[in-house]
Amino acid sequence: MLDEKAKKTMLRKIPHGLYICGVKDGENLNGFTVSWLMQSSFEPPLVVNCVKKDSGSHEMLKKNGVFSISFLEEGQKDLAAKFFKPQSRVGNKFEDVEFYEGEKTGCPIIKDSLGYVECQVVGSVEKGDHTVYVGEVIGAGIHREGKALNLESTGWQYGG
């Protein structure tokens, strides 16, 4: 039998960064905070992005097959928190956040971030309550140098 407490404790020890994933559907743009993201290949450059299935952004990503990832800097916890909330409850999350649309995907990229990657979905696995999207990096840029925001530094827990 699985020791639930041990499982939760150990899975929460996996280190995670915090990022804003941008998605689009026509003129409709949205973004959400992600922590289950990692690089998975050098050639071609691939990232794995796990997205909760019961979100509107999941449907936008599934339909259009593109996303952006804005890399947050240590100290941008409030920005990460803003994008945790569902668009259906809070409306336009980009209303007071400066962003631009990526050249390759048209997905929103946060100006006040360390930088970004733009991705084209090349595969997915729909198991559990998240879909694992594999995205090929087709665009990237650096806004500034800095230390990346990580989940542990916020005191939040997501996982387990």
Q: State mean pLDDT (0 to 100 scale).
A: 91
Number of helices: 5
> In angstroms, what separates the terminal alpha carbons?
16 Å
Model regions low in confidence, pLDDT < 50 over at least 5 residues: none
The SSE string, one letter per element, is HEEEEHEHHEEEEH
Shape: globular
How much strand content do the residues show?
Answer: 35-45%
Task: Please sum up the structure shown.
The protein is of the alpha+beta class and 160 residues long. It has helices at residues 4-11, 56-64, 77-82, 87-90, 151-154; strands at residues 19-25, 28-34, 37-41, 46-52, 66-71, 99-101, 108-110, 115-127, 130-142.
Please, could you describe this protein's structure?
The protein has helices spanning 4-11, 56-64, 77-82, 87-90, 151-154, and strands at residues 19-25, 28-34, 37-41, 46-52, 66-71, 99-101, 108-110, 115-127, 130-142. The model has no long low-confidence stretch (mean pLDDT 91). It starts with a helix and ends in a 6-residue tail after the last helix. The radius of gyration is 15 Å and the shape is globular. It is α+β, with helices and mostly antiparallel strands. The longest helix has 9 residues, at 56-64.
